[in-house]
Amino acid sequence: MNTLSLGPSWLDPDYLITTFGLIGVLVIVFAESGLLIGFFLPGDSLLFTTGLLVTTDVIKQPLWVVCTLIVLAAIIGDQVGYLFGRKVGPALFHRPDSRFFKQENVEKAHEFFEKYGPKSLVLARFVPIVRTFTPIVAGVSRMNYRSFITFNVIGGVLWGAGVTLLGAALGKVEFVHQHIEAILIAIVLVSVLPIVIEFMRARSRNKKEAAAEGPAVDGTAARGRHAKR
Prior knowledge:
The protein contains 9 helices and no strands. The protein is an all-alpha fold. Helix 1 crosses helix 2 and helix 1 packs parallel to helix 3. The termini are far apart.
């Protein structure tokens, strides 16, 4: 199978799996689930492709073993992210930008966490970038540990096993094999759609706020000129 990469070849799920095998998949899932440097990794398309390659015997392990290991990697990754957030604390929000760290990613995850509360740990699993930073923000916010574990496990199972099983199920369909490039692109586009929508909404809000502030500033200036006269 030859899939189409949306970026460098080393981010192509097919290349990653055929080169590094199941161990590589687990490392990537772990890194993307809770390490600051893992936000750019191809989580959704990687899991889908993993499930598909299990059905074609490219990955030799049984599907239930693959799903179990992926779920464990996802849960442990979030656990590490949570503990990192607890240790770093609010200082994370003052960390300067670097090549692999952008303050805006932390802010997006924080807004996501504030909006959805504990269930954000489940929802964020399906949102690229946000899923990497949400457990860290949960740690910074000192979320109740028992609640964190509960939602971490639920999210890890739904995302890790769910997307992999979806790939395995669709991997048995001939149409999927014939159009795998388009399907992987669609998965990536759907997964980033929430970010695009949120960006557009934030941009719209900023424009409205700027438009509302404009007349107020003009009115203040006019009153100032009138007072001088």
